[in-house]
Amino acid sequence: MEISSKENIHFFSNNTILPVDRSSFKSESSASKEKQSCCGGIKIFLGALSFVYFAKALSGSYLKSTITQIERRFDIPSSLVGVIDGSFEIGNLLIIILVSYFGAKLHRPRIIGAGCLIMSAGTFLIAMPQFFMGRYRYERFPSTINSTVSLSPCLQDKSQTSLSALEKSQAKINAGCEKEAGSSMWIYVLLGNLLRGIGETPIQPLGITYIDDYAVEENSALYIGCVQTLAIIGPIFGFLLGSLCAKLYVDIGFVDLDSVTISPKDVQWVGAWWLGYLIAGVISVLAGIPFWFLPKHLPKPESRKDSSTSSEHSKFIIEESREPRTSYWQHTKLAEMAKGKSLEFYFLPSLKNLFGNPVYILYLCASIIQFNSLIGMVTYKPKYIEQQYGQTSSKTNFVIGLINIPAVAFGIFSGGLIMKKFGVGVLGAAKLSLGSSFFGYLLLLSLFAMGCENSDVAGLTASYHGTAPMADYEQALFSECNSGCSCSEDSWDPVCGDNGVTYVSACLAGCRASSGSGDNTVFFNCSCVGTSESSQSSSAVVGTCQKGNECPKMFLYFLVISVITSYTLSVGGTPGYILLLRCIKPHLKSFALGIYTLAIRVLAGIPAPVYFGVAIDTTCLKWGSKRCGGRGACRLYDSSALRYVYLGLTLVLGTVSIFFSVAVLWVLRQRSSPQDESLSASGERGACGTKSRKDNFVNSDQLIQSTYWPEKETRL
Predict the structure, then answer these.
(1) pTM here?
(2) Domain 39-143+184-300 belongs to what architecture?
(3) Is residue 514 within 8 Å of residue 521, measured between CB atoms?
(4) Which end is more exposed in the chain, N or C (fewer Cβ atoms within 10 Å of the end residue's Cβ)?
């Protein structure tokens, strides 16, 4: 019977072969054309979105590279720089809910294009103070500026300086005070960074959902992976751009560079920080142009034409059809939401359900504390390298961009590769995440032994009589050797004596004669400069003395351990993120990720740079002074105290997060049976605080998005 039916079917198909072939030919040709147009449109969108991800990652990392430059240019403390850095997160939070809710209903490509324009406007605004606040002024003794006029730094014989010259100089200073007193230009940097946060908000949620809606389902994960890869490459170019701009003088193109008497090694040096923002702003404008010409909708692939939902959503619909009571409850819930009762009937029960999951709560706490540690460490890492090892801003940014960032990217990739190759389940992911954090912070502990000692600065870290360390209560810039000089203790124009000791100024070194100009200035007859064996006066040159001979070697050790630490900590990023996805119910995933991102931004992204900056400010030994009075930027830090504060705060926060990670692993072990553990080891997912296997479902799209971290992306 079965054979005859097959023969009948074959006979029928043979009799009707011509018309069937024609119709099928037409449908296949139209389908192929539609597929080509669909693929062409989505690939254009993919290329444009990848370029936008690159642009926003570049501008964000460039801001990190200019932290010390902004601090010196605007004469502000590190704590205020931390507020500026955190303003990006504030801008992002202002409109994230509106964009996430209303953005999907509007023209998504054009909203992304508008976001790029806002982002570029904010980037340009950050650079604007350079064109309005006048030229950069640094402290230098007059003889180092004009070689034709020889002044005594000590000013013991006050008659050698004409009163008219002093009066003119004082009048110029007063005029500058009146100009600066009415404006705090750093506010424009803060507002610009705030605009950057607002502009970047729609890029991630609307861009990723657009790809997921119109890409062929099996290609969706690959496309999203390409976008995330470009997002990782962006910071490399951002720090390299920061390295290039830091070599250029801040007022390049506005002043004669031959008249500049400081070098990039000087603590007062400020690079062309504004130039990089102009470049980043132009890139953002170019990145946004294609989105204005893309359609609101693309033709859906053939595999998705039968249903407007994805395969994952379809599975949930099938499951819901088997549970009529759940379906009825959801219809009731939608009706209540339409009546304006969504907060009571949907939001609060979902929030209660989510916070009732101990794994989610413990992992959220661990992530918040760990991101506090990582964000604070990354924000002030350039400053730490400059102050601890005496490196220039240019070299510091070059090292971070060329060594550290690739190590982070490789670590994230390695974590995902390990998860896939060994079929790591939920318990395995928790163990891998915990092990990564533990060994990463253990390596960080070794950096305490890889620091440089304080430079010998007379009156601050060493006494005027020899190089013996000084206690805080003994610090005094004035001594018998410079008692006959009229010196200011607020100035910072360091000179290096023949004895290897740095003096705050040539005047405080007791120097009474000078020759040369600029960096070639040499001071003579310095009463405070001399060896311990002889009290004979000696000479000094412009600039600080080099740190100890061991410091370059310690810097190399620091780089090696820092790269290994960055890689080790990054390996746990992918397993931790997958653990988060697998331990929540499917219908709560989007809500859980939104709460997770919101908590990270509010409780880590905003406060961490601020209190890290406050802690670093406590290690300052010598503050600069503004021209109109008041405390400026720090000129000299206590190297030992800075090392203990910076690394100690990072390590303490990391250790606390490890305890929460241990608690996550313990809860998972309590809730999983031995059978679940064996399944997990063989590639299946173990129990994760839920009773059904469907609660642990995660698709390949979410796996490929595991390279996400809240400081860069928005997921609400």
Answers:
(1) 0.79
(2) Up-down Bundle (1.20)
(3) yes
(4) N
